[in-house]
Fold:
Amino acid sequence: MSTSASGLAQIGKSVVIKGELSGSEDLYLDGQVEGSIALKGNSLTVGPNGQVKASVDAKGVVVQGKLEGNIQASDRVDLRKSAIVTGDISAQRISIEEGAFLKGKVEIHRADAK
Amino acid sequence: MKFFRGSSGPETIPAQGSQKLTRRSSGLGEVSRTWESAENLCVLDLGSTSPTNIRHFTEHGHRIYSEDLLTASTDPELLTKDEQGNAVLDSRKFLADNLVYPAAHFDFILCWNLPDYLDESLVKPVVGRLWSVLKPGGMLLAFFHTRDAGPDSPCHRFHIVGADTLEMQKIVLRREARRGPTGAVHTAISDGFQLQRVFNNRHIENLFRDFASIKFFLARDNVREVLVVR
Structure:
């Protein structure tokens, strides 16, 4: 894992990780992860080359690549047009670009329901 | 490492920059009266992923499930041969991978034009599964072409833009899979989904015979809207 000039932690496209991934900073993931990802209070971005097979728990999640697993976001989820998501999404807000693929449930929870 | 099955992904491609046609839908108008006056309903959308539909239902406080069954039916892993050696789709495998939900889970199912374009071998098994995942009293909306529709009738995506108004977007391309003599799967991009058959009223009644009631709405664009209640 590396850190970019902007301070964002990055996982490059040649990196393969199996297991639990957790942290307390924003993460840009363009590689492959299988397991679980917990970034409570922080954001995960799955880049266009990213292939994730994991449950995700984060404040915000942006998907440009492939993600198979449930997404639990305390704030928002953005599925960009290249996103391929198989799994259930629970978030306060969701944005889905035209062209994104989703197989799963979308559930919006209110902030006061926490 | 294999992360995804070969066929999973967005394989249907809406026409780039294509004009979206707007149409009134009496069937939609009838079901939308229910979901606009209720909360926390469970809706299954069987069309291509539609951000518009997801926004529509989440803004009403409902849960929406999105599952593109037509695209899923192009999975090359489904190809098999029957006793006569004809290429058919394996409906058991299809239902093992798709429409996997608890019994009586949904209040509404939006089928759109799925039965008209779905492979013959999957139509009855899929309708049977839809019956089981729909709650008693739950509603299913489907569209069928009438006899006057041409064989080249385009397959559309449907976006809900009003209580009784839909936007239709033509799907122009799809991935096609065929298994060759060696068993290898060959894929190619081909024209949009082809109309497989035209159901008449009796066929439709027979297809939904396990449901409690069925209601037909004849539209002007050679489409028959069907609303069934479990």
User: Anything to note?
Assistant: Residues 2-113 of chain A form one domain. The interface with chain B takes residues 16, 32, 34, 51-53, 66, 68, 84, 86, 94-108 of chain A (CB under 8 Å). Chain A is about 0% helix and 65% strand.
